[in-house]
Amino acid sequence: MTQPALTISRILHAGYLFDCAGTRIAFDTIFENPFSRNCHAFPDVRFDHEAIRRQRFDAVFISHFHDDHCSLESLDLLDRATPLHIYCQFDALFDMVRQLGFTNVHALALNVPVDVGPFQVIPREAMDADVDSMFQVRAAGLNVLNVVDSWIDDGTLAQLVQEGPWDMVLWPFQTMREIEVLAPSRAAPAPPALPEEWIPQLQALAPRYIVPSSCQFLLEPWSWYNRAFFPITYAQFAREATAALPAAQVIRLDPSRSVRLDAVSLQPGAPLDWVVPVGLQDVDYAYEGNAAPPHTADIARHFAPLTEAQMARVLDYCRTGLVEKYGDVEAASDYFDQPRLWELTLYDHAGAITRFHYRLAPDGATRVDADAGPPGWTTEIPATKLYAALAEGEALTSMYLRINDTVFDAATERALADADVVDDPLVRCLFSDTFGAYQAAQLRRLLAREAG
Fold first, then answer.
1. InterPro entries in the record, alphabetically (predicted)?
2. N or C: which end of the chain has fewer CB within 10 A?
3. How many CB atoms lie within 10 A of CB 372?
């Protein structure tokens, strides 16, 4: 007698297609390479967009609003009648998706099941419940936990253990150092082992199969981030997880690959023909501590020059926009509770420098001359990347900021010990009170394309 089965196929990153008895549901659908501006698929793939346009999914589930999980460019390839189930606390995202033409859009609520044919999908609480969620997927008598790229707290872990037994866990195996690379001279290298809570959590869940999930990308080929951003290899994860859970199997599932899961076995399935592997697929990450970061001037030379109008927008923002914005954004730590001098350095495509100096107080900022005194905070950024943040909603992780890459006086260094890197004045002004800037820029382009 044939066992009831569930086919699970990898799309990319946290993207999966689940198929049970002809019903097909997808998760965190990204059909772009690169995605999020500079995330290049690793291993490399290309997407057959015409074939994707012909696909019909019975539902699509999106775990959170981050642009590597919710991209309007990718959603634009789908039939507008596709039911979309999105976990997000912000109405603006739902409005944007509807403006794109989707007519069947639903907000997910934690622990409230969604039934789609033989599937039951239950959003589960992630550690940062204001941002993201996990998914429990039941079908064919099987129980799969898609952790996406979230972390699990003790309360949710206890709940998930009660929801077991688990046939498969899709576990986010990589700890990206997106904050540490902003201030590499002040960041310690990553520890040589998996985070200490991962193994006990996996042991508590005790799945039959573990898929190292999420994080299937590198940055630009020239980027020093590729040696500093990703500290965990597939091999290391498999080694540590297998040693700790000898009854479980660690299964690597690269883009396009499928497996057929039933109550007694896991077998290869037919690959997705609209996700096309390119080149070597059995590749792994390499980590070299902080990897001797190049100077920001050298990084800036990799980007195309701004037009005169684009550069004017950047300069106007530095002259007036930052000053107007600063008083409206609060810092998380108390370093900026007293006045500080801040030096902001822009690098153009040739590595040429433009510097701005500010006196920062809790209630606002003013521009000052370079001789106002030694800075207590420094920020460097390629001018092209600042423009991209202003005009295209580019995210912090692809902007190549360099923060406090110098040695300050002793008193400042002592005070900085408790400061948070993301208290950086530019970071706060660009990102503290904005939502969905990346998707909003995508929507503008897509609607303009349709109108044109």
1. RibonucZ/Hydroxyglut_hydro (IPR036866)
2. N
3. 14
The angle subtended at Cα 171 by Cα 165 and Cα 173, nearest 5°, is 150
- Residue 173: how many other CB atoms lie within 10 Å: 25
Q: pLDDT (tens digit, 0 to 9) for every residue of the chain, 452 residues total?
A: 567 899 999 999 999 999 999 999 999 999 999 999 999 999 999 999 999 999 999 999 999 999 999 999 999 999 999 999 999 999 999 999 999 999 999 999 999 999 999 999 999 999 999 999 999 999 999 999 999 999 999 999 999 999 999 999 999 999 999 999 999 999 988 999 999 999 999 999 999 999 999 999 999 999 999 999 999 999 999 999 999 999 999 999 999 999 999 999 999 999 999 999 999 999 999 999 877 899 999 999 999 999 999 999 999 999 999 999 999 999 988 999 999 999 999 999 999 999 999 999 998 999 999 999 999 999 999 999 999 999 999 999 999 999 999 999 999 999 999 899 999 999 999 998 889 999 999 999 999 998 87
Portions of the chain given CATH number 3.30.1050: 296-451
Give the Cα separation of 166 and 53 in Å (integer). Answer: 33
Q: Is the pTM of this model over 0.90?
A: yes
- CA–CA distance, 206 with 362 (Å, rounded to integer): 50
Question: With 0-12 CB in 10 A as exposed, 13-18 as middle and 19+ as buried, what is 330?
Answer: exposed
The 8-class DSSP code of residue 129 comes to T
Encoded tokens for 159: 């709940």
Fold of domain 6-277: Metallo-beta-lactamase; Chain A (3.60.15)
Close Cβ partners of 40 (under 8 Å, ≥ 6 residues apart): 33, 34, 217, 218, 219, 220, 221
| Parts of the chain belonging to CATH 3.60.15.10 | 6-277
Q: Which of 342, 246, 345 shows the shortest CA–CA distance to 297?
A: 345
